[in-house]
Amino acid sequence: MKALKDKVAVITGGASGIGAAVARLYAENGAAIAVLDRDAAAGAAVIGHLTEAGATALFAEVDVTSSDSVRQAMDSVAEQLRGIDILVTAAGILDEKPMAEMTEQDFDRTVDIDLKGVFLAGRWALPHLQARGGGRIINIASQLGIKGGTGLVHYVAAKAGVIGMTKAMALELAPEGILVNAIAPGPIDTPLLNGVTEEWKAAKRAELPLGRFGTAEEIAPTALLLASSPGGDIYVGQTLGPNSGDVMP
Ligand code: NAD
């Protein structure tokens, strides 16, 4: 039987990169998919591929920094697909800049999307997960939120915040059967990396045991594992960290 049969998954940032790969893998595993993203053209293309392949899938244009936008989209998805079981928060931006050049606006923009956006998605998916009597939240953090990195003070702060928030959400929601985890990928070859310089990428690549960046398709199976927990409800508040050679490149 398919691992996510009869499940409804909402994926923020599902129009590109990691979120799109998760959407494809979840759909292959039987889930109905809702992609929430600010990029309507890319979102429509992802939904087109999913529905052509026989999946139930819909798109909602959402800015994850807007509480109203996220709440309305979650309510609408829950109405159209008859509930929400799984939330994956993959919307994010990356904008490398030395701290000496970083403005307050730069800092606020990154923290708004990469940290507050994760909170708002969880906040407005929560009533629907509760209505189901349980569910899964999988936040996409980053190795940078654990190890730090240069030129990314705002991004590192946001991702460390996502890891902390994941632990807090996991502790608070586990008694309700809502299991919350984070995935902390290393560098993954997606459009997000257009936000860093070639020098930054070369330095990063040199640190990697496999000598290459990961792919979005290499991250998606971890999101499937966390959504389905085949061994039981054993994963609560964990941050699975590819990149250091332990799980994935
Ligand atoms: P991506 O650029 O391919 O996809 C990000 C998606 O988020 C895009 O579709 C974009 O439109 C959407 N988005 C951005 N701002 C938004 C907003 N305000 N509202 C709604 N949607 C918005 O990037 P990706 O690499 O797939 O990144 C997915 C997640 O993985 C991000 O949180 C990123 O920080 C994290 N991550 C990426 C890497 C990497 O190296 N690519 C490594 C670690 C963590």
Helix/strand layout:
Elements: E1 8-12, H1 17-28, E2 32-37, H2 40-52, E3 57-61, H3 67-81, E4 86-89, H4 104-132, E5 135-140, H5 144-147, H6 153-173, E6 178-183, H7 198-207, H8 216-228, E7 239-240
Parallel strand pairs: 1-2, 1-4, 2-3, 4-5, 5-6, 6-7
Protein name: 3-oxoacyl-[acyl-carrier protein] reductase
GO molecular function, one term: oxidoreductase activity
InterPro entries: KR_dom, NAD(P)-bd_dom_sf, Sc_DH/Rdtase_CS, SDR, SDR_fam
Overview of the molecule:
The chain is of the alpha/beta class. The protein has one domain: NAD(P)-binding Rossmann-like Domain (Rossmann fold), CATH 3.40.50.720. Helix content is 47%, strand content 14%. Strands 3-2-1-4-5-6-7 form a 7-stranded parallel β-sheet, with helices on both faces. The C terminus is likely disordered. The site of nicotinamide-adenine-dinucleotide has 32 residues, from helix 1 and helix 4. This is 3-oxoacyl-[acyl-carrier protein] reductase. Keywords: Oxidoreductase. Belongs to the short-chain dehydrogenases/reductases (SDR) family.
Entry summary:
This protein has 8 helices and 7 strands, in the order E-H-E-H-E-H-E-H-E-H-H-E-H-H-E. The chain is an alpha/beta fold and 249 residues long. The protein has one domain: Rossmann fold (3-Layer(aba) Sandwich).
* CATH evolutionary superfamily: NAD(P)-binding Rossmann-like Domain
- Reported by name, the CATH topology is Rossmann fold
Total beta strands = 7
Low-pLDDT stretches: 242-249
Ligand kinds? nicotinamide-adenine-dinucleotide
Shape: globular
* Structural domain tally: 1
Percent helix: 40-55%
* CATH architecture descriptor name: 3-Layer(aba) Sandwich
Please give the radius of gyration in angstroms: 17 Å
Note the main sheet: 7 strands, parallel
What amount of the residues lies in strands?
A: 5-15%
